[in-house]
Design a protein that fits this description.
By secondary structure, the protein is mainly alpha-helical. The protein contains 13 helices and 2 strands. A hairpin with a 4-residue loop joins strand 1 and strand 2 (272-274). Residues 52-53, 56-57, 60-61, 64, 91, 122, 124-125, 140, 144-145, 148, 151, 212-216, 221-224, 227, 237, 287 line the site of Phenylacetyl coenzyme A. Residues 52-53, 56-57, 60-61, 64, 91, 122, 124-125, 140, 144-145, 148, 151, 212-216, 221-224, 227, 237, 287 line the site of Phenylacetyl coenzyme A (FAQ).
């Protein structure tokens, strides 16, 4: 595996001297749209930015299984249950590819999981909100996967090869998730008054948190400038947020639902849907660990990790048995 020899990249490698001209050659490769691969020279800050971003993304996929997993036993039909199980399983798979992509940068999956369980790692703010009704499963697919795709399609062109390649498959699956979420919303919106009210209520609760998924405004974003220069990100947080609003508002109107934003209006001059002010205090509060479900999510992850101990032990014992057999 090409990760060998890369494990345990040290935090302090940021201080290591760069070979003469290496930085300029690296930037020239980026500017020429070449992919950077694990064994290529890269600035320590580039490596660390990617580890931060990919690991936060992996944690988001894994924690993101919890709010939806909550509804598997209560899905309204066998067809809905099968689709939801498959979706939650897909998110677990995305976490796996992403941890593997992060490992190519010299950090082990165990280390990253430990950081998550210790409460030291970030994951997407969106997964700290509760799923109160079945309509929330529709809203997550439509809005959360919709926002995730808007953010992740450009990541398929990320300058770091393993992340870009992982994102191609992930985006295909996320787009399927988005459609099944929209279809749940459409069914509810065309259903009884009570079902339509459930869909409306879910939109009201998930709309603003979905806009927060894109991160702080460009003026507040600490990492965007460097990530855009390195072509890790291709668009700024605000640009992607606007693209998402422009794509999603007509879909909501097609559903016959009302967005919880009195300032939302179409601006013919710019061709964009203009939206009201985001409550950044709420965003900061969720990031600080005080969202509605932060504690519950971490407790559930810790319990799942403990409950899975025997599976990890069995997998290791099996691998060791195969290794010994091959060596004999
Ligand atoms: N939540 O300087 P920036 C999904 C942090 S996957 C929490 O703008 P950057 C699939 C940020 O980390 C969803 N923290 O940072 C699914 C930084 O903190 P740090 C996840 C956030 O990296 C669907 C600080 O604020 N997707 O949903 C958030 O340039 C359904 C300053 O921010 C990804 O991870 C947030 N929303 O831009 C699963 C995609 N926003 O590290 C299940 C890859 C910002 O300095 C069900 N990541 N922060 O301590 C990205 O594109 C970027 O990392 C951004 C943030 C856009 C999230």
């Amino acid at each position: 595996m090409y990760t060998q020899g890369l494990l345990h990249a040290k935090e302090d490698d940021r201080a290591a001297p760069e070979p003469a001209g290496a930085l300029a050659r690296f930037q020239a490769r980026i500017d020429a749209e070449e992919k950077i691969e694990p064994n290529d020279w890269m600035p320590a800050a580039y490596r660390h930015t990617l580890i931060r971003m990919i690991s936060q993304h992996a944690h988001s996929e894994i924690v993101g299984m919890l709010p939806e997993g909550n509804w598997i036993t209560r899905a309204p039909s066998l067809r809905r249950k099968a689709a939801l199980i498959a979706k939650v399983q897909d998110e677990g798979g995305h976490g796996l590819y992403l941890y593997a992509a992060a490992e190519t940068l010299g950090v082990s999956r165990e280390e990253l999981v430990e950081q998550l369980l210790a409460g030291k790692a970030k994951y997407s703010s969106i997964f700290n909100y509760p799923t109160l009704t079945w309509a929330d499963i529709g809203a997550i697919g439509w809005l959360v996967d919709g926002a995730a795709i808007m953010n992740q399609i450009p990541l398929c062109r990320c300058s770091y090869g393993p992340y870009a390649r992982a994102m191609i498959r992930i985006c295909k699956e996320e787009s399927f998730h988005q459609r099944q979420g929209f279809e749940i919303m459409l069914t509810l919106a065309r259903g009884t008054d009570e079902q339509k009210a459930m869909a409306q209520d879910a939109l009201e609760r998930w709309w603003w948190p979905s806009l927060m998924m894109f991160g702080p405004s460009d003026a507040q974003s600490q990492h965007s400038d460097a990530s855009l220069r390195w072509k890790i990100k291709r668009f700024s947080n605000d640009e992607l947020r606007q693209k998402f609003v422009d794509a999603t508002v007509p879909q909501g109107h097609f559903l016959g639902l009302t967005f919880p934003d009195p300032d939302l209006r179409y601006d013919a001059a710019s061709g964009h849907w203009l939206f009201g002010a985001i409550d950044w205090a709420e965003f900061r509060n969720v990031l600080a660990g005080n969202g509605p479900c932060n504690r519950q999510r971490l407790e559930q992850r810790r319990k799942a990790h403990e409950d899975g101990e025997w599976v990890r032990a069995a997998a290791l014992a099996y691998a060791e048995k195969r290794r010994a057999r091959a060596a004999a």
